[in-house]
Specification:
- The protein has 306 residues and is α/β, with parallel strands linked by helices.
- Helix content is 30%, strand content 20%.
- Strand 1, helix 4 and strand 2 form a beta-alpha-beta unit.
- Helix 3 packs across helix 4, helix 6 crosses helix 9 and helix 10 packs antiparallel against helix 11.
- The longest helix has 16 residues.
Length: 306
C-alpha cells in the first residue's frame, strides 16, 4: 500500500498554485473570503466553532490523506489532523471499537491516535497565509473544480461551510470523485443552518434571503448533484454550533460587511434592505445582552464506491 506521502504528487505549499487560468475557471463564480481574511476567525467563532465542527466531522473520516477544500485559515484542518475518531469498515456508520459497537467519537481520547495527513486548498492566499503554521507544506491556492492532486490520491474530501459558496457544485463533486481513492468519502457540512431560535434570527434570515435568494436552493442541491456524479449518500444529519452574540454586535458585523452576501451590495439595496435590518436589530429589547445562538448545520456523508 502506498504511504500517505507517496500518494501526493508534490509537496504542497501556497506557492505551488496548480494555477487555474481565467479560461479554465467555471462560469459561475465561487466566493473567496479574502476581504475579511484578517478578521475571519474573530467573527466566525474561532477555536470554539472549529472544535464543534470538527467533532461532527471526525467520526466519518478514515485514516490517511484528507483534503480540506476551502480550508481557509486552517483552524478546522488542524483539528481534523489531530483528532482521534476514524470510520470503520465502510458500512455507513461512524467509528466503532474492536467489539463492533459503534460510537460517535466522544470517547476517542482513550483510543490510539488516528494517523492523518491533512492537505488544505483555498481560493484565497490571504486566508491560507494564516494557515501556514497549522499545515506547513500542505497548502495550495486552488479552485475546488481544479484540484492540484493526482487521481486516486486522497482518502476523504472535506467541505466545511464551503459547498454553497462554490460556483459549480457539480464540477466540484466530479473533481472530488477524481482525487478520491476507491471507497473514499466526501464529508460536507453546510454553512447554511436551520434558523437560530433567537429574536435576531428572523431579521437576519430575511436579510440573507433577500440578498441571496438562491443560496438555500444551492445548499439543497448537494445530494441530488452527488447522486448524478456517482456518489452514494450514506448519512445525512446535522452538526451543531453555538455562540453568544448581542443584537448590537450582529448589527455592527453587518455594518462592517463581515458576511459575504454584503460584499457586493449596491447603495440602493443597502438603503432598502440592509439599513432597515440594522435598525430592527438595534431596536430589539436589551440590544447589548448576548443571546446564545444555536445553529444546526446539515451534514452529508458520501461514498465514492469502488
Amino acid at each position: 500500500m502506498r504511504s500517505a506521502a507517496a500518494a501526493l504528487p508534490l509537496e504542497l505549499n501556497i506557492r505551488d498554485n496548480a494555477r487555474v487560468t481565467s479560461s479554465e475557471r467555471p462560469v459561475a463564480r465561487s466566493v473567496s473570503y479574502a476581504p475579511i481574511a484578517a478578521r475571519y476567525e474573530r467573527v466566525r467563532g474561532g477555536f470554539a466553532r472549529a472544535a464543534e465542527l470538527s467533532t461532527g466531522v471526525l467520526p466519518w473520516l478514515p485514516a490517511g490523506v484528507i483534503l480540506d477544500v476551502g480550508a481557509g485559515t486552517g483552524i478546522v484542518s488542524q483539528r481534523l489532523r489531530a483528532g482521534q475518531p476514524s470510520i470503520g469498515d465502510g458500512s455507513g456508520e461512524p467509528a466503532g471499537d474492536s467489539s463492533g459497537s459503534w460510537t460517535d467519537g466522544s470517547d476517542a481520547r482513550t483510543d490510539a491516535p488516528t494517523v492523518r495527513r491533512v492537505v488544505g486548498v483555498d481560493l484565497s492566499i490571504e486566508m491560507l497565509g494564516q494557515a501556514r503554521s497549522r499545515l506547513p507544506g500542505c497548502l495550495a491556492v486552488a479552485d475546488a473544480t481544479h484540484l492540484p492532486l493526482a487521481a486516486g490520491s486522497v482518502d476523504a474530501v472535506v467541505y466545511v461551510w464551503v459547498l454553497h459558496h462554490i460556483g459549480d457544485i457539480d464540477a466540484a463533486l466530479r473533481e472530488a470523485k477524481r482525487v478520491l481513492r476507491p471507497r473514499g468519502r466526501v464529508v460536507a457540512v453546510s454553512g447554511l443552518s436551520e434558523p437560530a431560535g433567537d429574536d435576531m434570527a428572523p431579521i437576519f434570515e430575511r436579510l440573507s434571503a433577500t440578498l441571496r435568494p438562491n443560496m438555500g436552493r444551492r445548499a439543497g442541491a448537494v445530494v441530488p448533484a452527488a447522486r448524478l456524479v456517482g456518489f452514494t449518500p450514506i448519512h445525512e444529519g446535522t452538526v451543531r454550533t453555538s455562540r453568544g452574540m448581542s443584537p448590537n454586535e450582529l448589527a455592527n458585523a453587518i455594518e462592517q460587511r463581515l458576511f459575504s452576501q454584503l460584499w457586493d451590495t449596491s447603495e440602493e439595496a443597502w438603503a432598502a434592505v440592509v439599513a432597515p435590518a440594522v435598525k430592527a436589530l438595534r431596536a430589539l429589547p436589551r440590544p447589548d445582552r448576548r443571546r446564545r445562538r444555536v445553529f444546526d448545520h446539515p451534514l452529508v456523508v458520501l461514498d465514492r464506491g469502488p
